[in-house]
Design goal:
This protein is an alpha+beta fold. 52% of the residues lie in helices and 15% in strands. It is built from 31 helices and 23 strands.
């Protein structure tokens, strides 16, 4: 039955839907209240599309989940690494160095006796201690543990009693008399009674009561009722022991307590070493112990030699100090030494000028320096990972927009507004991304231990915004004008617009600015543009590759057109026509940034390892070094055992003189007398000032008195001016000349040096042959020695030698440079970020392959009905996609290689490597990091294409069904 003329059929009825479009299927004007009705219509439009594309919906949700989790977790992991490193740094120092300590003098020459007595009164000291507690600068906080403050004699006084122990006969023990606060709460009485405040006797003959700890009484052989005497300029002070005290608390508490460890001899006597005189001799020792007085007896301390000193030790809760707060804490401590905070502290304390202990401030400043050194590496790797992840999110949005392009063209053609379409696509993306982002953020905050949530939430919000806005913004840019059909894209024929040209030139200008800033200013932690330099370099490479990609593609297509067979020509033609620039650009950015970060990050790590290796080699001279101190000789059996040790390939012995002179040139240099051929081979193998062995040899028949040729340090050779000088060794003088000049040599660690042939010296002075002047005292071993075996040889050599032989291993020296938690954490984060970027690059390849599955399946079905073999179908897919991946892999390797000379000079890795400043570490190109990731990309792309071709060509067995549904599959 035909419809009545003028009546509307269901296909012709229209309504304004959630996008503002007029679409089929309902009657106009039947909507209810505005917002609720629009929500219902949007829901009816959204749900079927999400259900129909459930696989891609879940894939997008998983991508957002992983990306937002990574974005939120990475800042917190960096904070956690810094926190653990700071705690490890603070745990490695003494408890006294973790406290805020200060002293104030109360010496007789500073003020009148009445003023000094008022200064050391318990009330004054307590008030000053309270002011010191309140002056702790943020972010540091005072600990609940008891503070230690009081008065003690400024200089430990000698206790001349003959019954006190003396490690060195001529050095009597020294005593500190202290009125440390809180002693009643911190100790328990073991015997006797606590000291009283009474001070007996006239000035110069005072008699005081004191208490000792159990350890002090036992070591100093003092008990209740015993006395010791402290002579001074005005007389002798007698101290009577009235009680023995035991500290309260466990051994762990006592070991970590600032109260008991701020002063070195508070809990037990300290053995003090006095170095020998410059003329020689053995070091001497004496005991230093502390006796506790009643606080009201502090006035007697003024009369001791050098007067009294007020001390304040405020324990700090360093466990609550975060790594990012170290700089603020160091600045706060520095402000207490000068400036307004220092003036306020001095005014409130009322005890005169306070001298703060710099240990904690220096520790925090050292940590901050190391933390600043690792920031460029973390920023470069983190920004590379972030850029790759955001590019993949953009790629996912672009691919979704491309897949729905025909539908969006139809909606716009039927009246949909651009704002309505954008809002609807935003709701579609948000319905998937927001729940996944919320779950990812909650997981990241729960599973990580960072102290700050702000950076994590900001990064998570940025990643979520990209995931939500990528699809609607791409659709808005594509459909800002109403189209009747989707325009054909052809990379070889499309001419870039002026807008694109301006954007590309702007990007290249920003890159040039970043490179110049990095090379001029270095990689300080405040230079964000410099940290972006590797990413910008990859973006610039992507811009150039997008510009240049059509040229080799057009040339290859022309060459393929002349060849036999259609596979290569069809594949290259599809490579030029199939992908749009909007699809190719995010893929290129993700792949190139990942490859650049991997190559440059690997080069950075290689530079760190090479710097440590060079510094360790310079410190040791070979893979192992045995040396006898104090000019002793090495035992012959030590050299034989070392030569046969596992892993040792070469050994050489030499004599090193540290006390040589060149009169008129220098009064101190190091001279090495070596076996020239063996030593030259060692220097050549280790690349330490290689030289020809013949340069140090003296031909037979050379007249006596001729200067001996020597390998000289560069500065020393300049001082010689090409002439010769008399070398003065203990018991020997020789004329020498600089035959070879080098910056370093294996035998000498640093300073000016001369290397002479031992045989040449013996020929010039036959009387030295077989004497201690030429006998080896150093052995250098090369190869890959077993540390345990060398340590066993070293231990066996000890009992038979007059002095202890020193063993230094290159592997142990290298490990010493990398023993900080911050260095380990930074390298692990850098490696994880590089692997994460590689994972996102692989995901970009997967997304592009999945996007092309329906179209390629339909193409292969059509071609199989025309007789194309399955093998040719696989070749067609390879010719279509591999050119882009091959060029991207080559460009990524070249970009990573170019980043080393462009960006490397602006990055100083010395602090991160932990090496001395004399052995700086720089970025070094790593062939494996530059070549393996591009090869892995090619292998992944080829494997994915072959797998895709194998799966899609199976459709050739049912061509009728595939051809019938190809239109639905390609939508």
């Amino acid at each position: 039955m035909k419809p009545t003329p003028g009546a509307r059929t269901p296909a012709d009825t229209t309504t304004t839907d959630a996008t503002g479009t007029t679409g089929p299927g309902s009657t106009a004007g039947t909507t209810g209240p505005g917002s609720r009705s629009r929500t219902r219509r949007a829901d009816r439009w959204l749900r079927p599309r999400l259900r129909a594309d459930a696989g891609r919906t879940w894939l997008l949700a998983a991508l957002v989940l992983v990306t937002v989790f990574t974005a939120a977790a990475l800042p917190r992991l960096a904070d956690t690494t810094a926190d653990h490193a700071l705690r490890a740094t603070l745990d490695d120092i003494r408890p006294a160095q973790r406290a805020l300590s200060a002293t104030a003098t109360a010496a007789p020459q500073d003020a009148a006796p009445d003023v000094l007595r008022d200064l050391v009164r318990p009330g004054t000291v307590h008030r000053a201690g309270k002011a010191f507690h309140d002056a702790v600068p943020a972010p540091l906080t005072p600990d609940r543990a008891p503070a230690a403050h009081g008065v003690h004699n400024a200089t430990p006084a000698e206790a001349t009693d003959p019954g006190l122990p003396r490690p060195s006969r001529d050095l009597p023990p020294r005593a500190t008399l202290s009125t440390q606060s809180g002693l009643d709460r911190a100790t328990r009485l073991v015997s006797g009674h606590r000291p009283r405040a009474t001070v007996h006797g006239p000035q110069g003959h005072r008699r005081l009561q004191a208490a000792l700890t159990e350890d002090t009484a036992r070591r100093m052989k003092l008990g209740v009722g015993d006395t010791f005497h402290l002579p001074g300029p005005a007389g002798t002070t007698t101290v009577e022991i009235t009680g023995i005290l035991a500290p309260r608390g466990s051994s762990t508490h006592l070991r970590d307590s600032v109260y008991w460890n701020a002063e070195e001899s508070t809990r037990r006597p300290a053995l003090v070493t006095v170095p020998p005189e410059p003329g020689g001799g053995a070091p001497k020792h004496y005991w230093h112990f502390t006796a506790f007085l009643h606080p009201d007896a502090s006035r007697a301390l003024i009369e001791l030699p050098d007067g009294a000193e007020l001390f304040f030790h405020q324990p700090l809760d360093t466990g609550r100090l975060a790594g990012h707060q170290a700089a603020d804490a160091a600045d706060g401590l520095a402000a207490l030494t000068s400036g307004a905070p220092a003036a306020r502290l001095q005014q409130h304390a009322g005890v005169g000028a306070l001298t703060l202990d710099p240990d904690l401030r220096e520790t925090l400043a050292g940590f901050q320096k190391e933390h600043a050194a690792v920031q460029p590496l973390l920023l470069i790797s983190g920004l590379g990972l972030a850029t790759t992840a955001l590019a993949v999110l953009l790629l996912a949005g672009v691919l979704t927009a491309e897949r729905s392009r025909d539908e969006h063209v139809l909606l716009r053609a039927r009246g949909a507004s651009l704002a309505g379409l954008t809002a609807l696509l935003t709701a579609r993306a948000a319905a998937v991304a927001l729940p996944a982002a919320a779950v990812a953020t909650a997981l990241a905050l729960t599973l990580t231990d960072g102290t700050r949530t702000g950076p994590a939430l900001t990064a998570a919000a940025a990643a979520t915004a990209v995931a939500v806005l990528a699809l609607p913004l791409r659709a808005a840019l594509t459909h800002r004008r109403v189209q009747t059909t989707a325009a054909r894209t052809d990379l070889t024929r499309t001419r870039p617009s002026r807008r694109r040209t301006v954007l590309e030139l702007t990007g290249l200008a920003v890159l040039a600015t970043a490179v110049l800033a990095l090379r001029r200013d270095g990689s300080d932690d405040g230079n964000a543009l410099a940290a972006l330099a590797p990413v910008l370099l990859a973006l610039a490479c992507a811009i150039l590759l997008l510009r240049c990609y059509p040229l080799p593609l057009r040339l290859a297509a022309r060459l393929a057109a002349r060849c036999r067979g259609p596979v290569a020509f069809l594949g290259l033609a599809r490579a030029a026509r199939a992908p749009s620039p909007a699809t190719v650009a995010p893929t290129l950015v993700a792949l190139l940034v990942a490859l650049t970060v991997a190559g440059f990050g690997g080069s950075v790590l290689t530079g760190i390892h090479d710097g440590r290796d060079r510094a360790a080699l310079a410190a040791v001279g070979a893979d192992a070094r045995f040396e006898a101190p104090d000019a002793e000789d090495l035992l012959p059996q030590l050299a034989r055992r070392t030569a046969h040790a596992p892993g040792v390939t070469h050994t050489t012995t030499l004599r090193v003189h540290d006390d040589a002179e060149l009169p008129g040139v220098t009064d101190h240099l190091t001279v090495a007398l070596v076996d020239a051929p063996a030593y030259a081979r060692l220097a050549r193998r280790n690349h330490q000032g290689a030289f020809p062995a013949d340069a140090l040899t003296v031909p037979r028949g050379t007249p006596a008195g001729r200067p001996l040729p020597a390998l000289a340090s560069r500065g020393l050779a300049r001082a010689l001016h090409g002439g010769h000088a008399e070398l003065a060794l203990p018991g020997l003088e020789l004329p020498v000349r600089a035959a070879v000049t080098r910056d370093n040599t294996p035998a000498v660690r640093d300073g000016a040096f001369l290397v002479l042939s031992r045989e040449a010296v013996a020929r010039a002075r036959p009387d030295t042959r077989g004497t201690a002047l030429l006998a080896p005292n150093t052995l250098l071993a090369d190869g890959d020695p077993d540390p345990a075996a060398l340590h066993r040889i070293h231990d066996k050599a000890g009992p038979h030698a007059d002095t202890r032989v020193l063993l230094t291993l290159r592997s142990e020296e290298r490990a010493r440079y990398a023993d900080t938690v911050l260095q380990h954490g930074a390298e692990q984060l850098c490696t994880a970020a590089t692997l994460g970027a590689a994972g996102y690059a692989a995901l970009a390849v997967l997304l592009t392959l999945l996007h092309a599955v329906p179209e390629r399946r339909a193409l292969l079905v059509r071609l199989s009905t025309l007789g194309l073999p399955r093998r040719h179908g696989q070749g067609l897919l390879l010719w279509e996609s591999l050119p882009l991946y091959a060029l991207t892999a080559a460009a990524g390797a070249l970009t990573g290689l170019a980043a080393v000379p462009l960006l490397g000079p602006g990055i100083d890795l010395t602090a991160l490597a932990g090496t001395p400043d004399t052995f700086p570490a720089h970025v070094t190109a790593d062939p494996a990091s530059l070549t393996l990731p591009p090869l892995a990309l090619l292998a992944l792309a080829a494997a994915g294409l072959l797998l895709q071709a194998r799966l899609t060509t199976r459709a050739a067995n049912r061509p009728t069904a595939e051809l019938r549904t190809e239109h639905q599959e390609t939508r």
